[in-house]
Amino acid sequence: DVATRTGFTSHRNLRETEREKENSMNFTLDLCTPLTLTSLTGVRHKSQGPSVEKCGQMRFITAEAKASAGRLDGKMREKTLTMDTLNPQVKAVEYAVRGPIVLKAGEIERYLEEGGTKPFSEVIKANIGDAHAMGQQPITFLRQVVALCTFPELMDSPSFPEDAKWRARRILQGCGGHSLGSYSASPGVECIRKDIAAYIEQRDEGVPSDWENIYLTTGASDGIMTILRLLVSGKDSSRTGVMIPIPQYPLYSAAISEMDAVQVNYYLDEDNCWALDINELHRAYQAAKQHCQPRVICIINPGNPTGQVQSKKCIEEVLHFAYEENLFVMSDEVYQDNVYAPDCQFHSFKKVLYEMGPEYFSSVELVSFHSTSKGYTGECGFRGGYMEVINMDPEVKAQLVKLLSVRLCPPLAGQAAMDVIVNPPQPEEHTFKQFHQEKSSVLGALAEKAKLTEQILNSVPGIKCNPVQGSMYAFPRIFIPPKAVEEALGMQPDMLYCLRLLEETGICVVPGSGFGQKDRTYHFRMTILPSIEKLNVLLGKVRDFHISFLKEYSGLEWDEI
Predict the structure, then answer these.
(1) Where is the Aminotransferase class I/classII large domain positioned along the sequence (predicted)?
(2) Domain ranges, residue 445
(3) Which end of the chain has less neighbouring CB within 10 Å, N or C?
(4) 516 and 415 in one domain?
């Protein structure tokens, strides 16, 4: 009857389900026979003959079976990668620009988005030089060229100017399959390398540049890391020493830690607008020779985080020092378009080296770096950049090319963006007027904000800010009362200050300890990228917070401050 048949079916299904579960949890695969339905399911059919010979079998256990086994013996499989087995050089890496303060800022942002309340309505992230995230508009011509390269069908559109179209066609002709989606040669697209060399010659007023010394990179950071990999070697007292400015951009200290090199600090002169003192270079070099082999000196000009522009005389002294001590020179020049002080001018290390004469220009090993991320374009997300390599040993250069080939090539969209920066519209072209207006507007606004930042910060008791001559940052010195220093306990006092600033005002800046600073001095780095309106709000909040902070920890009233 129906009930009997139904009961039989249910009983049979139950037995089959249990058997299938058992088979799925624990089955064997014979390594001597080809894969068959039997070997994979454990279910034999009459036509398949006798069972397999035991000739070496792999046992497969499902996650369910393993979990059951773990519960039975009370043990679970240990993880292979733990903090104990992690590469110790990775643990030593620190990168303050995206460190604990920024993570906390993200938490607060999410809290506000979910309806939480704070004494402020938004987090203002002044921690990083990300121009577009701060509201800066893209340069129209650059986006037009990259758009045309990305979607060539737009070549037929009358909305795009011919100046942009012919540049895009030229770039695409240098790409495999005329597509931005192809790989390029590891050093970059040839026509772009040639455009960069022509740009450098024009920038340096005729100093020759060989396009075969140009290498496209994934942002300047990629190039800096690559060159450091070539330079770092040795053990114990023969380990490579890397001289870096303090304060410094944390990429350098992070790379040095990751590569297990030796960080050699030379301190910039805060009382002299963060100038580079040649006597300090000699002091740092001689001290380092006691425990490592200094082989390279890094310079950031214009400065990050300090915003200074080095004079020609200073650069000559650095190059002479490198010549005398046989040091490799790495010149980070990504802010070369960001010079605001009327009495300052950007001088490339290469041009100054050339003007020092053949003895220097033919022998000092120099690599200089540039990027799409800064300047007036602020195209951080394209990850475009280049480096120019001077006087590198030919055999070492072959090793450089080998190292670059491992990462195949930089993103082609970034290469295209870099090409527009070095090959912008010329005065005789139709697009020049709009391009020039947009570029001048960005740089003019940055100059205005640099001056505003300096003026307002210097009006606050207990804050001293050097002139922001260039780049995108201010690095003011802040007075932190002894009581606050004591309260900081395990953290740096300026970390305590910046955390309090974030939690009470929504302003996210980076403590100076993340960049390096002289003992018992405290700073923070902030970008000048927010709009004038938002920057005024930001600086006003910093002013009010600092005065409140001083009153809380110094026991002083307003009129005493």
Answers:
(1) 178-539
(2) 91-118+435-554
(3) N
(4) no
